[in-house]
Amino acid sequence: MSTPGLALNGGAPAISTPTPAWPVYDQTDADALVEVLNSGRWGSTAGDVVQTFEAEFAAHQDSKYGFALNNGTLALAAALRAGGVGIGDEVIVPPYTFIATAAAALFVGAVPVFADVDPTTHLLDPEAAKAAITERTKAIIPVHLAGAIADMDAFAALGREHDLLIVEDSAQATGAAWKGTAVGSLAGIGTFSFQSSKNLTAGEGGAVTTNDEELANALYAMINVGRVRGGGWYEHTIVGWNLRMTEFQGALLRTQLGRLDAQQKERDVNAVLLDELLADVEGVTPDATDERWTSHGRHLYMMRFPAFEGNAELRDAALKALHAEGLAGASSGYVPLHRNEAVVRDAKAIADRLGQPYPEPQCPVTDELCRDTIWLPQSWLLGNEETTRSVAAAITKVVTSIDDLR
Ligand SMILES: *Cc1c(COP(=O)(O)O)cnc(C)c1O
């Protein structure tokens, strides 16, 4: 028996408007790019556009120091190396995140150790992280997933008590603030991504922020082939990568940064409305909020569906139904990173070589989340009220027709 209402079964789709456009740009962006082109100064060692962006971005994130670089993945690796994390050190990471969070540890010869997440927010659980600390632990990477913010009071305290580097993976949280202070400035180092899907984008790109001068100097060196800030061209006092971005990226990021706050407000209004519209719908639970999040980055709209009863196949059927309703880009989200064979193989290889234990990671909450989560990309929060109401209608329709999808 099928409900004719579902678009999958020939009913009218709940959403008749296309996904709101992303990225957003106009002649201002084109002019900025052409200006760099005509200047002939295409690299940041020749021009000053990236440097200007760095100052603007650092200020936007309430940070004393900010450096731009080529992507968010290597921002994490640079942060770890700048903070002194190296061979055999353990780095605590959540398993519900993009692979880069764990891969960054492996890139510097360190061992990613997984600690489970909170079932209501998908964020790294400070208690689980605390329980994973050993005498080899050197860093924790709380991820501000979806634009929500990990418990930075707890993580900053863990960092102080156990002398650990805290790296805020803020790839999804540009503009988010914890009790009034922007992410990236709340502990040791913050890392950001400007990849195509992110709320601030130049196609690719990244940044690191800190309030600590020593860490700032080390970050600069990691990005600039080990050079000394203010030093000579061939003065390399440590071994560093070349992770610089181009002036073209810097120019685009400056114009895009000018739009960010207004876009974030729009997304926030729509997300709050979506929360309201879904609050009484049985079978779907949008992620919890936290009053300490004085500004939510609104990168993803995350929901769990008790209606799936932990059945990932039913989740996948519902996802197809949502796509048919017009909700393009809705995603079943991450797969458990603590079960990723490549990551676990590399982690074990390092631990084995050094004679360190690497117990099979146990993260039951993440396993559960990966069976019943669906998220929407940020662009769905950039529509008007009618778009948001039709998004809620699509979700409601699918979740109330769940028995037709079994
Ligand atoms: C996007 C992302 C990254 C990596 O950024 P890239 O710029 O794509 O390399 C790292 N961590 C998280 C949580 C991300 O979402």
Automatic annotation (TrEMBL):
Spans traversing the lipid bilayer: none
Pfam families: DegT_DnrJ_EryC1
Tagged with keyword Transferase: yes
Domain of life, per lineage: Bacteria
Ranges in a coiled coil: none
Sites of N6-(pyridoxal phosphate)lysine modification: K198
The keyword 4Fe-4S appears for this protein: no
Active-site residues, record numbering mapped to chain: K198
InterPro entries: DegT/StrS_aminotransferase (IPR000653), PyrdxlP-dep_Trfase (IPR015424), PyrdxlP-dep_Trfase_major (IPR015421), PyrdxlP-dep_Trfase_small (IPR015422)
Family that this chain belongs to: Belongs to the DegT/DnrJ/EryC1 family.
Protein name: DegT/DnrJ/EryC1/StrS family aminotransferase
Organism: Candidatus Avipropionibacterium avicola
Origin organism lineage: Bacteria, Bacillati, Actinomycetota, Actinomycetes, Propionibacteriales
